Amino acid sequence: MIGYLQGVIIDIMHDTIIIGTNGVGYRVDTKASKLSINEEISLYIHTHVREQELKLFGFATKQELGLFEMLITVSGVGPKLAMALVSSLGYDEIVSAIIEGQPKLLKSPGIGQKTAERIIIDLKSKLKQSAHQGVLNGRKTANPAQDEVHDALIGLGFSETEISKALESIDPQLDAGNLIKEALKVIRNKSNN
């Protein structure tokens, strides 16, 4: 399976690009709005195989890829819908909506109230399950909102170091939704520097 591609954009067709690498052109569904032909690009790839179809979905970060792969495990959410959700709402908004339990924040074309509620129910528990090791390793604070945000960020693939530094630099009195938004901003700003 293809997990990562680096190359030059040869062509752009709506939300699909062709990446040229070592003489081969890979067709990848991705957020193509800010991309241009001949631009160097690196993408984390989800290879989706279904019956007689093989599709590649590309993401700028491992966290976006992880979120996409969580979304497609939800009943009724296929790869096209998950990609549209990640593209239209963005990583931060989706994670905040899940943490806060706010289905109305997930509503977008193709996602109604019931699907949004199903996403929150399924993924909030998955985030907690995948982050359970962090809790077992003795990480508990007096702030349940911080613990919830910590566990969610671990579940999305961020490191202990990134999370600890982010949580240290923001107001611990914020609710879980605002904590996650601020933590993601801090992590993103540090990775862009």
Automatic annotation (TrEMBL):
GO CC term (a single one): Holliday junction helicase complex
Annotated segments matching region Domain III: 141-193
Keywords recorded for this protein, A-Z: ATP-binding, Cytoplasm, DNA damage, DNA recombination, DNA repair, DNA-binding, Helicase, Hydrolase, Nucleotide-binding
Subcellular location, principal: cytoplasm
Any one GO biological process: DNA recombination
A Pfam family assignment: RuvA_N
InterPro entries in UniProt: DNA_helicase_Holl-junc_RuvA_I (IPR013849), Hlx-hairpin-Hlx_DNA-bd_motif (IPR003583), NA-bd_OB-fold (IPR012340), RuvA (IPR000085), RuvA_2-like (IPR010994), RuvA_C (IPR011114), RuvA_C_sf (IPR036267)
Residue ranges of every copy of the Helix-hairpin-helix DNA-binding motif class domain listed in the record: 69-88, 103-122
Molecular function as annotated in GO: ATP binding; four-way junction DNA binding; four-way junction helicase activity; hydrolase activity
Location of the protein in the cell: Cytoplasm
Family per similarity comment: Belongs to the RuvA family.
Subunit structure: Homotetramer. Forms an RuvA(8)-RuvB(12)-Holliday junction (HJ) complex. HJ DNA is sandwiched between 2 RuvA tetramers; dsDNA enters through RuvA and exits via RuvB. An RuvB hexamer assembles on each DNA strand where it exits the tetramer. Each RuvB hexamer is contacted by two RuvA subunits (via domain III) on 2 adjacent RuvB subunits; this complex drives branch migration. In the full resolvosome a probable DNA-RuvA(4)-RuvB(12)-RuvC(2) complex forms which resolves the HJ.
Entry's free-text remark on domains: Has three domains with a flexible linker between the domains II and III and assumes an 'L' shape. Domain III is highly mobile and contacts RuvB.
Function: The RuvA-RuvB-RuvC complex processes Holliday junction (HJ) DNA during genetic recombination and DNA repair, while the RuvA-RuvB complex plays an important role in the rescue of blocked DNA replication forks via replication fork reversal (RFR). RuvA specifically binds to HJ cruciform DNA, conferring on it an open structure. The RuvB hexamer acts as an ATP-dependent pump, pulling dsDNA into and through the RuvAB complex. HJ branch migration allows RuvC to scan DNA until it finds its consensus sequence, where it cleaves and resolves the cruciform DNA.
Name under which the protein is recorded: Holliday junction branch migration complex subunit RuvA
Taxonomic lineage: Bacteria, Candidatus Dojkabacteria
